Amino acid sequence: MSEKALKGLHSSIDLVVKDPARKDYALKALAVHGRALQFLAPQLRADKEVVLKAVKNDGWALQWADQECRKDRELVLKAMSKDVRSLQSPDESIRFGQNNILALKEVLSDPTFALEALKQDGLAYEFLSPDLKQDRELARVAVTQDGHALELLVPELKQDRSLAYKAVQQKGSALEFVPHFANDLMLVSAAVRNDPGAFHWASKELQANREVWLQVCPERLEHWKNLASVEKELHLEGTVLRMADPLLKKDPEMIFQAAVQNRQVLEQLDPSTWRSKDFMLRLAREDLGVLRFAEWQSREDAMEALEVSGMALEFLPEELRADKDIVLEAVGHSGRALQFASAELRSDREVVLKALAQERTALLFAAEHLRRDKAIWLYDGEEPPFFEPPPEEEAETEAPEEEGIVVTE
């Protein structure tokens, strides 16, 4: 994030904390950080204009909208256009999540809404109600919009050859999800015409048949043995490494080039060819997400990964994300890594202050009692005093509207 963007994010947080019930503050904050919706007063989480501003910025913000807003088709469609996963059930840790779950189930059980959603993104099929997932017409719309929706179909619909054909016509690599059709020459040919790499998912019989090769992949046999040709392909799509000659698939530099382009290629290769610590750390400097495939042998390995980026904390095992020394190291490199720490450590004042020393936005991920601590908001890099309100102030139902104090309900 650029310095200018980070400054804007800090300012937006300040506005919300200053007064979570002011709509003008809310709209300014949500234009920068959609998930700030979670910190607004209930009446603003029920305001369609406010929620629309949030989901336009970040579809995931829909999780914190009022249940009535989660029934609003316009809002739900706008959220899923940013992130289709916003259709999944809200996190149970959200205190108003149960009502939201019920509201969402109502929307996802509506056939009219389902059809509209699938035309926008076929992967929305995953979140439909069980009854609607049985609807063949909705399944057809899903795979026609995104062939990879074929993976999500209920088992009986995956057996439908015409649906599989529609899917591979849209995205040849969807052939992977219907291995029972791997020997169907017509269906395999349709997949390969869309994506030559799809031939990897054809049956061994078809792959070994020279006549089939000539029909669906003319001149490809020699192509995948040529180093220069494979390198050129890898710059376009890393996962095509699976089509290369076996010797090339074991070349560390070939694997590195492929994984930089698409980390998923690692799932298709023998782990012994790439799962060394040095290789993973080198690759992590190009794409931190590859650490999801790492095997963590020791705390020392984890510390080395955190030197690449504190955000590597996301990919560490649960027990290491609950290790205070590990988390302190992570947030010392990147304050936002606090979001991946255990709940106990997100409540730890020392850990939160160290994260804040790196970037103030880390406070978004701290435990609620620390987000509402006046001393934390006055923190400027030095150890702040603990804020202990006088007895008469504790007895009041509402705190005075001073700068830096959040008025709670």
UniProtKB/TrEMBL annotation:
InterPro entries: DUF4116. Residues 382-409 are annotated as: Disordered. It comes from the Eukaryota. Residues 47-94, 110-158, 323-371 form the DUF4116 domain. Pfam families: DUF4116. Transmembrane segments: none annotated. This is DUF4116 domain-containing protein. It comes from Durusdinium trenchii.
